[in-house]
Amino acid sequence: MSYAFAGGLQARVYQRLIDDPALSALIGGAVYDAPLEPALAAAGPDYVTLGEETVRANGTKTSRGAIHDFTVTVHSGRDGFAAAKEIAAAVCDCLIDAPLALEAGRLVALRFLRAGAERGRAPEKRRVSLRFRAVVDED
């Protein structure tokens, strides 16, 4: 096992989110790898970030692999949770069992693990953090 699959996996997840028409209808191309500064976040009410990741070995005698647990977070400047939850559902629809072709390795599975919805301070009034699991094999 190594961390070799992480960069390619993140790039494909990002591209999948950017290319999804349903998600684009809700947030345009507002997908980032870090939360926006307050002044920039105030310009648009909703966006998505790629977040934390933990990786552990998942190899056998004959192949190397890894399990990647990663977070995608919906940030919303709206007063209610409705918009943030609609965006979160679109993220799930986009990623769960997505057929991502990785540069290195093969994606065996991409599953939803859990979510948490929280209130925040302006400009980010609502946040939904989604946790996913990607199983990658060297195959």
How is this structure best described in words?
Strands 1-2-3-5-4 form a 5-stranded mixed β-sheet. A hairpin with a 6-residue loop joins strand 4 and strand 5. The mean pLDDT is 92. The protein is 28% helix and 37% strand. The chain has 139 residues and is an alpha+beta fold. Helix 2 packs antiparallel against helix 4. 25% of the residues are buried.
Keywords:
4 helices; elongated; alpha+beta; 139 residues; 5-stranded mixed sheet; single chain
Q: Sheet bearing the most strands, described?
A: 5 strands, mixed
Q: How many domains make up the 3D coordinates? A: 1
Question: What is the CATH first-level class name?
Answer: Alpha Beta
According to DSSP, the number of beta strands is 5
Structural class: alpha+beta
- The neighbouring-strand order within the major sheet is 1-2-3-5-4
Low-confidence stretches: none
**Subunit organisation of the chains:** single chain
Percent of residues in helical segments?
Answer: 25-40%
Strand content: 35-45%
Helix segment tally: 4
- The CATH level-2 architecture is identified as 2-Layer Sandwich
Shape: elongated
Classify the fold: give the CATH topology: STM4215-like
Tell me, rounded to a whole number, the average pLDDT. Answer: 92
Give the H and E element order. HHEHEEHEE
Radius of gyration: 16 Å
Distance between the termini: 12 Å
